Amino acid sequence: MSLSPGEPAATPGGAQPAAGAQTPSAGQVPPAGQAPSAGQAPSAGQAPSAGQAPSAGQGAPASLRPPGTFGGLGGIGGLGRWSAVSSGAVGTGAVPRGRNRIPARLIVGVLCALIFFTTATRIAPAIRAGLHDGTRGSWVATNQKCVHSACTWQGKFVLPNGHVLQTADQYDGQLGSAVHAGTSLPALYTGGSGTVFPANGSDLWISLLAALVLSALGLYWASHRYVAAYLRQRREQDAVTSPRH
User: Fold this and answer.
1) CB 38 within 8 A of CB 44
2) β-strand partners of 164
3) Is the pTM of this model over 0.85?
4) Per-residue model confidence (pLDDT) at position 13
5) 146 forms bridges with which residues in the sheet?
6) How crowded is the C-beta side of 55, counted as CA atoms within 13 Å?
7) 43-55: pLDDT as tens digits
8) Distance (Å, rounded) from C-alpha 40 to C-alpha 45?
9) Is the dihedral of CA 199, 175, 120, 164 positive or negative?
10) Which of 30, 133, 198, 231 could bridge across to 128 with cysteines, CB 3.0–4.6 Å?
């Protein structure tokens, strides 16, 4: 069949385009519901035509997404980055909570170790004072030392014959407000520490023993896990290195 000049060509199937209808040109996005022509990129939300790859960031099917991607965020890592951005931790120098905290077991262990060793050096002289076992003499006040509002008297321990046995000792007993330099009180020196006890004994050993037991329990709580792990590791190493019979 011959066509006259200006007459539109018939489409396959015999259908002819309507008058005034235009074919989309290259680079033009076709309307919704219409398949794009060859070389034309599909619009957002539009399925790509046969042989055409989806563009980056487009809603591609799950089977065509690269492994580990989830909505363009890169899987779990992407979700982590998204949460960091949304919380304001990126670019602000914010540190996640709980990263730089000192473990509570470490703090308790250090404090209990200090209390334990300080108490252990003082409990033996205090027990002897409780048993009234020691050298009898006099404690003579020499000078007063004050740190802020806490003041303590220093003195010397003098034997009955006038010989000075110890200097710069503290008196572990009640001192009245009338104490001054030169005040002399009957005292008991048990040795082993810079403390002089009253002549009638002292109950200081009771509080020291309680502090010693509590600090030992605190040390056990703070270190038993690490000690058990160390011993288990040593046993495993010995089992590996020891010759088998």
Assistant:
1) no
2) 158
3) no
4) 47
5) 151
6) 8
7) 544 555 555 555 5
8) 15
9) negative
10) 133
